[in-house]
Here is the input.
Amino acid sequence: MHTRRQILVNMASVLLAGALSVIAVATQAENASLQSGAQHGAALIMVEQQGCIYCARWNAEIAPIYPKTPEGHFAPLRRIDLHDPRPDDLTFDGPLVITPTFVLTIDGQETARIEGYGGDELFWAMLTVTLRNHSDFAAYMIDEKQ
Here is the structure.
């Protein structure tokens, strides 16, 4: 007979395996999107850390579809860990403290950021406003439709 602890460990293992497979698929799509989006100079930098429940929610709810969206094509996702040294090719306007933080960069320079994750609808709304106000996303969308 399984103890409560064994059952919880088994459940956690199953959930972790599922989350890792979602992240692996999303990472492949993100890499392809990074290559296609490089021509615009825009990127969405996701600052995350291990154990962040809101990062995990974003990974489950948004990561699989983000690279397939116009936003994902325009500003491909790039991930960095909060505790790792900052990449030399990125310049941030202030400290990175909250995870997840989504930093819109143009040619490696921060132009705007979204701190936290409050669900998919709020994320998409905030990202749309951020892209429209701090990049040439609107012009990109017009070009894509022609």
